[in-house]
């Protein structure tokens, strides 16, 4: 039996504790907050999107950074095993749109409660409001941890599961990166990810609160397309948010930190340009004696209409039967290419996850053990691993934590 010290009481930390204890180790978990799973509590708007029920190809294709590193993790503890694990803890699950898996109760507290009960059953020693200030190593071997109060705790192995720096109010303040650097690990550049984005244009504020479904979003660097996705988005007072925008931030965040990018929204993606032109022409024919501003009510949500009127370049009072073919075609083009200038990402306070982390080149993918310090392991968001929304990031946490927990000798 080894004495295993786990730093962090979030998703990865709790799973690692359960797994290591189940493997016969004496497990001590240290969490600086006054309760476990603070970030897990707000995950999925408080409903906790436990995992994704898609097949392995979907899982790997949804990982944005270093998917190959996760091969052993994902196959050691699959999404199906995650679902079974929680079902066995009494947390009944359901599958929703996009194969997202949630507790039937829609309460993240049930997920946390199930993990806590299992930790108690396994005899895990949980130390709340106990902050770790340093990970100690001697001659390339883990030796213990130093607490903030000056107390040294000796141990045979340690799992760093401190998370990233997103949602810092939950205690994610980058401690794990500091611990890793101190013992010689490289930490890659960090960015907020799965985060809303800011735009330059005045009309973002006018559209605040408007949600658009079934639109197609493309992001360009000059003429080069960097990202494209179909789905749902939301306008805010500072710019854009919603599922497809959050996913886009994961793909283009690094580039956006260097320069402005162009966001192009196809408001009617199921119609070709020709079909949309015919549709607009039909609206115009039916309202030919009306003013332009009164002839497009059926084309847009009411909040979008004044912005489209303004951007069309057509005088709002102009009679529909006086609108030229060129004006109409420009209007159609604008509907298919509603453009905004992306100026930057929102802060870590609004980011679901952190992109970047402890370099996976220095971690054994088959065990999660450091290649630099024997007896030191990493799990979850502290690693340079991130994925799209839909339960994939929690699957990374569960799988890497499970693998770390079973790999300690």
Question: In short, what is this structure?
Answer:
With 409 residues, the chain is an alpha+beta fold. 32% of the residues lie in helices and 25% in strands.
Structural write-up:
- The protein has 409 residues and is α+β, with helices and mostly antiparallel strands.
- It has 13 helices and 21 strands.
- The chain has helices spanning 11-22, 38-42, 56-61, 71-76, 79-88, 108-121, 175-182, 203-206, 243-256, 273-286, 305-312, 325-336, 392-407; strands spanning 3-7, 26-30, 51-52, 63-65, 93-96, 100-103, 125-127, 132-138, 141-147, 152-154, 157-160, 191-193, 197-199, 211-221, 224-235, 239-241, 261-266, 338-345, 353-355, 376-378, 386-387.
- The strands form six sheets. It has a six-stranded antiparallel beta barrel with strand order 13-16-15-14-17-18. Strands 7-2-1-11-20 form a five-stranded parallel β-sheet, covered by helices on one side.
- A hairpin with a 2-residue loop joins strand 14 and strand 15 (224-235).
- Helix 1 (11-22) packs parallel to helix 6 and helix 10 crosses helix 12 (325-336).
- The longest helix is centred in the last third of the chain and has 16 residues, at 392-407.
- The protein is elongated.
- The N and C termini lie close together (8 Å).
- The model has no long low-confidence stretch (mean pLDDT 96).
